[in-house]
Every structure is written in structure tokens, then in C-alpha cells.
Write a structure and sequence with these properties.
It contains 14 helices and 13 strands. It is α/β, with parallel strands linked by helices. The chain has an eleven-stranded mixed beta sheet with strand order 1-3-2-6-8-7-12-13-11-9-10, with helices on both faces. The mean pLDDT is about 95.
Length: about 475
């Protein structure tokens, strides 16, 4: 294999096999990723920081280990990118904000630390909106990030750069975070696979502005790569006291088991969402695939009211708390939308939040009960295709915030359930459509297994760039 683009198009799983056979080297893989970043990033703005010398040094060390037959771990040599929300040792962490500095981070975040321990080759930091606050990726610091299928459209957010890096083959493994849809929204708009694991499955530090709803997870081109990445990142880290108990789980096990016999509910609207007809038809066809594969699929809404108002209270108060840590003299440098939402967050009292916990508790218990009847829940990932880049929400839908166009995402941050965005087709205009697969807490294995069953009969497509 001699083409740089061919090497960049290999999945992590494929790259590892080439490394074993010595038909591709980690240095070749790193150079291929860096070459595509150099060519494409000025158009799509997926990366905000690249350090080629650091990347190639990591790749050379990996290559030497493979030559000795001593790979360091499960992802040794694989080009990997980290959302700029998260620290990587020796690199700046700007979080999309002009109020941060270029100071080198002293430590890796837990997920990056585990990936480094397993030999991942970091190719850079990917763009996010300021402090990961909204469903699209633009910021005062890094500008507008764009959809790999159509650069006039949004890539979604807040992990938009990670979705771009995945779709354009700029990195095989990409680390994202999801506090209200921030993995699944860009995955859906960009046509890649994204998994929000159970809350606490992947240790996180430092905590985000949404400390009890933010999940850390993989964004990849294949389900197998997500299972591999999750296996690595879910190893324990003492810095996250809210993380799940340490478990030795290889999420690749059982990935090909299929869905025959599973009890699956399909909800087209969750009982309250407005979905574009083209999206609804595409997702309904995807749900039928699971029935064709032997699952028991039943049209059933999960039966809860829209929790948006309560979720926004939690989210906006967290934004206000983050803003309090920034000197008032610098607030003029911050995204005006962030300031608006933080101001809304200041309206709520501690008593309001405690009452909100009651509503959240009721929703979590409701979904625990729902999954006594159904192994999985299928929904649309998003109710609309990607809209124009550079705006928070489309002007013709009566939206007041990005939460209005993400009704299928944030409820499952409240309930802390695993949920995946699975590419399932395209609109007539050629923009990706996504199916969401939601599982009971702690059952990423079921979500991955179902995602792989769909992928096996409908392989994911990437933009022809």
C-alpha cells in the first residue's frame, strides 16, 4: 500500500493488522494523517492545534516497538485526536475561548492518559465551541468549523472537530464528549459513528460545566474501532471519583452476535418531537432493518414528557458557574450566546435545582422500568439535516436555542444511558441522516452489538474527499 490517502482511510482495526504484518508502519500512518490535515483543515477547521514533530516522535517510538514485536497496548501506532476540551500533556488546552492561554497542560486527561499508555499517536487537538456549550462548532478563538459533506453546512457540536477528523480520515480514533448531545449531534450531521457511553464508564477530569450529564466517548468510522477505543478509555483513573467501579471489559467481545431475539422499541418522535418527513422515512427504514435481522421491533414511545426546561436549568447554571471563574473584565471576549445562557442560569436557586433533581430522578426511574420491557430503544438521531454553518439554530423552525433541534439527545444525558449515533442514509441533498440506539445503563455491549449488526448490512459511507 503506497498511497497516503489509502493509508489514512484505514480503520484503527485495519491499521493494527497492517502494523502486525509490517505492510504499513506507524510513521506512514502518522504522515498520512498529517498530510490530510495540512490539505483539508483550512477548509473544514477540524483541528485547532497540530504538533507534527511531537506526532512523528510518537510514531517513530511506536514503529520501533512493532519492529521488536513488542507493541505497547491495544492501539499502538494509531493516529488519534483529542477534543480541545481535554488536556493533553505538553499541549495547550484552549477550550475554544480567548480567555484561556497557550500554556502547556501538565497532565493528560484520563482518556488521553489511557490512550497514551496503549501507544496511541496523538496528531492534534480538535475544535469545539467555547467551553463546549452548544450544538454547533464555532468559537471566538477558532472560528467556524464546517461539515465534511458540504462546507456551507454546520458540522454540529460541540465535538464538531472530532467528527470532521473522523469523516475526513484525519485521525482514526477521536475523543469526544457529550453533555447534551455533543458526540451524537456532530456524528449525526457528519455521517460517522459516535457513542455516548454510560455516565462514568470513561473516567473524566477535569469535570465540565455539566458535571453530572457529560459523558466521554469515542467517535470513529467503524463500530469495531469504537469498541476498541472504549475498551482502552474505560480503564480506571483515580481522579474521577464519580467513575464506575473498575471492570475488565473488552467491548469487542460479542460484537458480531447480532440482534435476533432482542426486544426493541422504535419511537419516531419520543411523543413530542417534530421530525422532517425525509428524516422520519429514512430512520423508519433503518428500524425495519432490525426486524429483518430477527429482532422483535415494536413501535412504542417511551412515555415521558419533554424534559427540556429542567435540563436547561441544570445546563445553564453550570455555564454560569464556569463564567464566575473568569474575570468580569474579560467577559466581552466570550461568545455572546454563552453569556446569554449563563445569565438565564443565574435565575435559578438551589431550591430550584433540588426540585429539578426530583424530575430527573423520576425520568431515570421511568427509563429503568422501560428497559425491563425492551432491550433497546431506537429513535432518530436528529430531527433535521445539517443547516447553515455559523448559526446556533435554523431561522425557520421557531427555535430559541439549540436544545429545540436536539430533542432526541439530551434526555439520555439526564438518564445517563449509553446511546449511539449510527449513520443510516442521506437526504436528497446528500446530507447524512442518523439513527439513535439507546440502551439501559451499563449495557454499551448491547448498543455496540446492535450498531454493528446494522453496519454489517449497511456499511457506513465517507465523504469523497
Amino acid at each position: 500500500m503506497t498511497s497516503s490517502d489509502d493509508i489514512a482511510a484505514l480503520s484503527a482495526t485495519e491499521l493494527l493488522e497492517h502494523f502486525r504484518r509490517r505492510t504499513v508502519s506507524p510513521v506512514e500512518a502518522a504522515r498520512a494523517a498529517l498530510a490530510r490535515i495540512e490539505t483539508l483543515n483550512s477548509t473544514f477547521n477540524g483541528f485547532c492545534f497540530v504538533a507534527p514533530d511531537d506526532t512523528l516522535a510518537m510514531a517513530r517510538a511506536s514503529e520501533a516497538r512493532w519492529r521488536r514485536g513488542e507493541p505497547l497496548g491495544l492501539v499502538d501506532g494509531v493516529p488519534t485526536a483529542v477534543k480541545d476540551q481535554w488536556p493533553v500533556e505538553g499541549w495547550p488546552t484552549r477550550r475554544g475561548s480567548c480567555t484561556t492561554t497557550d500554556a502547556a497542560s501538565p497532565d493528560d486527561c484520563p482518556a488521553a492518559a489511557r490512550l497514551r499508555e496503549h501507544g496511541a499517536v496523538f496528531v492534534g487537538k480538535t475544535t469545539c465551541c467555547e467551553f463546549s456549550w452548544k450544538g454547533v462548532t464555532d468559537s471566538p478563538l477558532t472560528g467556524i468549523s464546517r461539515n465534511p459533506w458540504d462546507p456551507s453546512k454546520t458540522c454540529g457540536g460541540s465535538s464538531g472537530g472530532a467528527a470532521i477528523a473522523t469523516a475526513l480520515r484525519l485521525a482514526a480514533l477521536n475523543l469526544g464528549s457529550d453533555g447534551g448531545g455533543s458526540i451524537r449531534m456532530p456524528a449525526g450531521f457528519c455521517g460517522i459513528f459516535g457513542l455516548k457511553p454510560t455516565y462514568g464508564r470513561v473516567p473524566a477530569w477535569p469535570l465540565s460545566a455539566a458535571p453530572t450529564t457529560s459523558h466521554t466517548g469515542p467517535m470513529t468510522r467503524t463500530v469495531a474501532d469504537a469498541a476498541l477505543m472504549l475498551t482502552v478509555m474505560s480503564e480506571p483513573d483515580p481522579r474521577d471519583w464519580l467513575a464506575l467501579p473498575p471492570q475488565k471489559i473488552d467491548f469487542r467481545d460479542g460484537l458480531e452476535a447480532g440482534v435476533a431475539g432482542l426486544r426493541i422499541a422504535y419511537s419516531a418522535t419520543l411523543g413530542h418531537a417534530k421530525v422532517d418527513p425525509e428524516i422520519a422515512d429514512t430512520v423508519a427504514a433503518a428500524a425495519q432493518v432490525f426486524a429483518d435481522l430477527g429482532a422483535q421491533v415494536e413501535a412504542r414511545d417511551p412515555g415521558f414528557a419533554n424534559p427540556q426546561d429542567v435540563f436547561e436549568m441544570f445546563f445553564f447554571t453550570g455555564m454560569a458557574a464556569t463564567l464566575d471563574g473568569i474575570p468580569a473584565a474579560r467577559h466581552g471576549e466570550i461568545d455572546p450566546g454563552y453569556l446569554r445562557c449563563a445569565a438565564l442560569g443565574r435565575r435559578f436557586s438551589g431550591i430550584d435545582l433540588i426540585k429539578g433533581w426530583g424530575a430527573r430522578d423520576a425520568l431515570g426511574r421511568h427509563m429503568n422500568g422501560f428497559h425491563q420491557q425492551f432491550d433497546l430503544l431506537l429513535t432518530p438521531g436528529l430531527p433535521l439535516p445539517a443547516f447553515a454553518a455559523g448559526i446556533e439554530f435554523p431561522p425557520d423552525r421557531g427555535c430559541r436555542s439549540w436544545f429545540d433541534w436536539s430533542p432526541f439527545c439530551f434526555p439520555f444525558n439526564f438518564t445517563q444511558q449509553p446511546a449511539a449515533s449510527v449513520p443510516c442514509g442521506f437526504t436528497a441533498a446528500g446530507l447524512p441522516v442518523a439513527l439513535q440506539i439507546v440502551g439501559p445503563r451499563y449495557r454499551e455491549d448491547l448498543v455496540l452489538r446492535a450498531s454493528r449488526a446494522y453496519e454489517a448490512v449497511h456499511p457506513f459511507k465517507l465523504p469523497p474527499r
